[in-house]
Amino acid sequence: MSNSTYRIQGATGEWEVVIGLEVHAQVVSQAKLFSGAATAFGAEPNSQVSLVDAAMPGMLPVPNRECIRQAVRTGMAINAQINTWSRFDRKNYFYADLPQGYQISQLYHPLVGEGQIEITLDEKDPDSPVKTIGIERIHVEQDAGKLMHDQHPTRSYVDLNRSGVALMEIVSRPDMRSPAEAGAYLRKLRTILRYVGSCDGNMEEGSMRADVNVSVRKPGEPFGTRTETKNVNSVRFVMAAIEMEASRQVDVLESGGTIVQETRLFDPDKMETRSMRSKEDAHDYRYFPDPDLLPLELDDAFLEECRASLPELPDAKVKRYESELGLSAYNAAVLTAEAETARWFEQLLAAGARIQKKSEADVAKASANWLLSELYGALNRLGRGLDDSPVSPEQGAELLALIADGTISGTIAKQVFEIMLETGDAAGKIVEEKGLKQTSDTGAIEAAVAKILADNADKVEQYKGGKEALFGFFVGQTMKAMQGKANPQIVNELLKKALAN
């Protein structure tokens, strides 16, 4: 993945864009980082607020072990340094939705140190080059609440449900050089978080959002001054924000201006970034160790338990699907892109191997092709996802087994599948009730073939005269006469034999 692939053409020549992302990922946990209040999305405002979250006098924070565990597991999934000694710091600033007047975060001693993520610009292209994006750190911090400006004509309301919710801030190095690379990085990171189960990655609900750091420079020159565009909540918007902000910076620099280090907002309606406030430095926040919290010290048993709980991760899964199951690079990439898809596929595979008494590798290709073409096509048509598919992996495996053992043909399988989608019935039951079993009765097929050839004597002559493309016509007519229930292999054999005479 060459750095020269993306350049902004300015009046004074080419400019290179330098990108780093700070991703805030909400930790999957039943309770907040320092209190026992619930974290469910969509609850009534201020219905999930403990005395700790409301910063009542005398209330002391207590770290939630599960939140720490999930952050450690995430660090392990990106091959990062896990710091067995870390500490919480207070970041002091006033926000109306932060009752304490400070945020508990980690500046000096984060829980997770340096790691890396490998990205490909086109995950579905086996020849797309791979690039490694460095991760600087992952620290754990509490979220602020939310100001609601649309509930009253003259007042803003405060909802503290999010106040104290655990976040992982995943800080990349400035290693990305195009909007496409940033998009690939964000997609890959979200996939890893979902596999690990540490964050649901739902950007629409705000459980994953990105602060986008952008600067521009002439190729080969030192880094320029960067701006930070806050709280961008989709992959598409992150890519658009980079494009808009980089172009804006080039325009400013080429007209003799200077870039101010500041915080900006992205407006998706106007497709522009605009200034929010000048960017503070770390000392402006007066960080100091939180006196209410002891340092976190992780023992070997805890780390071992975290490591043992990790699932097979997407990169390892892709390699296994290709080498052990013989799947194409494209199919392997699509099947592993979402944890839900990989889980569904593996359930389909396990059930198929069990029914067919064959190895996973033997069942894999048919299963992958059916899932990615037939099932995905049907779900798109119905506007549904795998999680609410009317057909279960076990039902899909039964349908594929009926094709594999010759009970039904591929054509009949499509009919059976449509009925399964409508009724939820099992494939075997539908085949039995509707009399759709494929026939290998050579006598019945021979009779159909004889009639077709007799009715189309002119075409038989043309075929024998060298027009071999007509063979497909005879197959189609025979299958039609047999109502699609004839075994295609036997039809082919009997037709060849009859036409050879």
Measured distance between first and last alpha carbons:
61 Å
List the total number of helices: 15
> What kind of oligomer do you see?
single chain
**Spans of 5+ residues with little confidence (pLDDT < 50)?**
none
- Roughly what percent helix? 25-40%
Bulk shape: elongated
Largest sheet descriptor: 9 strands, mixed
Annotation, overall tally of beta strands: 16
Number of domains in the coordinates? 3
Alpha-beta content class: alpha+beta
- Tell me the fraction of residues in β-strands, as a range: 15-25%
Which value, in Å, is the CA radius of gyration?
30 Å
Task: Give me some keywords for this one.
3-stranded antiparallel beta sheet, 9-stranded mixed beta sheet, 18% strand, alpha+beta, 15 helices, 40% helix, 501 residues, 3 domains, single chain, elongated, Arc Repressor Mutant, subunit A
Q: What do these coordinates show?
A:
- There is one protein chain.
- With 501 residues, the protein is α+β, with helices and mostly antiparallel strands.
- It has three domains: 297 residues, no CATH class; 124 residues, no CATH class; 59 residues, Arc Repressor Mutant, subunit A (Orthogonal Bundle).
- The strands form four sheets. Strands 1, 2, 6, 7, 10, 11, 12, 13 and 14 form a nine-stranded mixed beta sheet that branches.
- α2 runs antiparallel to α3, α7 crosses α9 and α12 packs across α15.
- The radius of gyration is 30 Å and the shape is elongated.
- 36% of the residues are buried.
- Its EC number is 6.3.5.-.
- It catalyses: L-aspartyl-tRNA(Asn) + L-glutamine + ATP + H2O = L-asparaginyl-tRNA(Asn) + L-glutamate + ADP + phosphate + 2 H(+); L-glutamyl-tRNA(Gln) + L-glutamine + ATP + H2O = L-glutaminyl-tRNA(Gln) + L-glutamate + ADP + phosphate + H(+).
- It is an enzyme of class 6 (ligase).
- One of its GO terms (molecular function) is ATP binding.
